[in-house]
Amino acid sequence: MVEKILIGVIVISIFGLMLELKKPGSWSFH
């Protein structure tokens, strides 16, 4: 149960991070 929750959180975090990187003029490129 706990493992599934951790995996879900990690996947959501990576997905959100990818969306941030795809944004034009993102702070990550500075």
Question: What would you say this structure looks like, in words?
Answer:
- The radius of gyration is 12 Å and the shape is rod-shaped.
- The chain is built from one helix and no strands.
- The model has no long low-confidence stretch (mean pLDDT 83).
- It has 30 residues and is mostly helical.
User: What's the helix count?
Assistant: 1
Strand proportion: under 5%
How many beta-strand elements?
A: 0
Radius of gyration: 12 Å
Summarize model confidence as the mean pLDDT.
Answer: 83
- What best-fitting shape do the alpha-carbon axes yield? rod-shaped
What share of residues is helical?
over 70%
The secondary-structure class comes to mainly alpha
Biggest beta sheet attributes: none
Keywords: Membrane, Transmembrane, Transmembrane helix
Task: Give the topology.
Blueprint: H1 2-22
Task: Briefly characterize the structure.
By secondary structure, the chain is an all-alpha fold.
Distinctive features:
mainly alpha, single chain, 30 residues, rod-shaped, 70% helix, 1 helix
